From TrEMBL:
<feature type="domain" description="Glucosamine/galactosamine-6-phosphate isomerase">
    <location>
        <begin position="19"/>
        <end position="248"/>
    </location>
</feature>
<protein>
    <recommendedName>
        <fullName>Probable 6-phosphogluconolactonase</fullName>
        <ecNumber>3.1.1.31</ecNumber>
    </recommendedName>
</protein>
<dbReference type="InterPro" id="IPR039104">
    <property type="entry name" value="6PGL"/>
</dbReference>
<comment type="similarity">
    <text>Belongs to the glucosamine/galactosamine-6-phosphate isomerase family. 6-phosphogluconolactonase subfamily.</text>
</comment>
<dbReference type="Pfam" id="PF01182">
    <property type="entry name" value="Glucosamine_iso"/>
</dbReference>
<dbReference type="GO" id="GO:0017057">
    <property type="term" value="F:6-phosphogluconolactonase activity"/>
</dbReference>
<comment type="function">
    <text>Hydrolysis of 6-phosphogluconolactone to 6-phosphogluconate.</text>
</comment>
<dbReference type="GO" id="GO:0005737">
    <property type="term" value="C:cytoplasm"/>
</dbReference>
<dbReference type="GO" id="GO:0006098">
    <property type="term" value="P:pentose-phosphate shunt"/>
</dbReference>
<comment type="pathway">
    <text>Carbohydrate degradation; pentose phosphate pathway; D-ribulose 5-phosphate from D-glucose 6-phosphate (oxidative stage): step 2/3.</text>
</comment>
<dbReference type="InterPro" id="IPR005900">
    <property type="entry name" value="6-phosphogluconolactonase_DevB"/>
</dbReference>
<dbReference type="InterPro" id="IPR006148">
    <property type="entry name" value="Glc/Gal-6P_isomerase"/>
</dbReference>
<keyword id="KW-0378">Hydrolase</keyword>
<dbReference type="GO" id="GO:0005975">
    <property type="term" value="P:carbohydrate metabolic process"/>
</dbReference>
<dbReference type="InterPro" id="IPR037171">
    <property type="entry name" value="NagB/RpiA_transferase-like"/>
</dbReference>
Length: 264
């Protein structure tokens, strides 16, 4: 098992007056990265979360982005998914489909949803096999550093307890360092059964936007953006890119306990 990696300096964070300003900036950030990766390698691999993130992507559905983005080049994944049917109200796929994916022309074959007929173990294996196949077809790149898949952009949320994906504080899964995709059956946030990317995959990304709004998350933001060394960091503090760029997108409420909280 890997030691928890602890960053030595504060990651970049941007504070917005409100969620509206944040969502406009997040749309431009995502559209610019889409343009860059499509130009450089003809594809853009984007990883979504559940929760409030999907609502914060709504500006991508508006001009100028909706018409300028090359949606046909997008490949969409989930950093974590609840093990429920795809039409269940708890499904992260359903959340993203209803609020975002159904409104843009991404080819259905480029949207990599969980196999909802399988157990958590089976669904995690199946998702990992899907990723390995996409490496073979060169949709997905591997990190030259560690051989884990390297996604172009991960759009992450964070819970009030500092969890990211379905990697929860104090849970052994935060130390998983072999698997690409694993499962959890005792998630403290319901529903209990989920699959999730592991930290080596998250931390191999080219870009991560860590998107957090609201005062419920302020204490965890303060904790995660601190540089104090601790033997038991919050999962959000374990998101750290050696060969990539991590940016926290915060609204004023989420940033309220930070000293450096000048907003845009
Ligand atoms: O399945 C899930 O629960 C989500 O994928 C989860 O990982 C989410 O990103 C965080 O819990 C933050 O959720 P909020 O943005 O709603 O706080």
């Amino acid at each position: 098992m890997a030691e928890a990696s602890i960053r030595s300096e504060k990651p970049k964070h941007i504070v917005f007056k409100g969620e509206e300003e944040l969502s406009k900036s997040l749309a431009k950030y995502t559209a610019d990265l889409s343009e860059k990766f499509v130009r450089e390698r003809g594809a853009f691999t984007v990883v979504l979360s559940g929760g409030s993130l999907i609502e914060s992507l709504r500006k991508l559905l508006e001009a100028p982005f909706v018409d300028s983005i090359e949606w046909a080049r997008w490949h969409v994944f989930w950093v974590d998914e609840r093990v429920v049917k795809k039409d269940h109200p708890d499904s992260n796929y359903k959340l993203a489909f209803d609020g975002f994916l159904s409104k843009v022309p991404i080819p259905p074959g480029h949207v990599y949803a969980i196999n909802d007929a399988l157990s958590p173990e089976g669904a995690a294996d199946d998702y990992e096999a899907c990723l390995r196949q996409l490496v073979k077809t060169e949709v997905l790149e591997l990190s030259k550093d560690n051989g884990f898949p390297k996604f172009d952009l991960m759009l992450l949320g964070m819970g009030p307890d500092g969890h990211v994906a379905s990697l929860f504080p104090g849970h052994p899964l935060v130390k998983e360092n072999q698997r690409w995709v694993t499962f959890i059956k005792d998630s403290p946030k319901p529903p209990p059964q989920r699959i999730t990317f592991t930290f080596p995959v998250i931390n191999s990304s080219s870009y991560i936007a860590q998107v957090v709004c609201g005062s419920n998350e302020a204490a965890a933001v303060h904790n995660a953006l601190g540089t104090e060394k601790t033997s038991d960091p919050l999962p959000a503090a374990m998101v750290t890119l050696k060969d990539g760029e991590l940016t926290w997108f915060l609204d004023e409420a989420a940033a309220s306990l930070l000293q450096d909280k000048a907003s845009l």
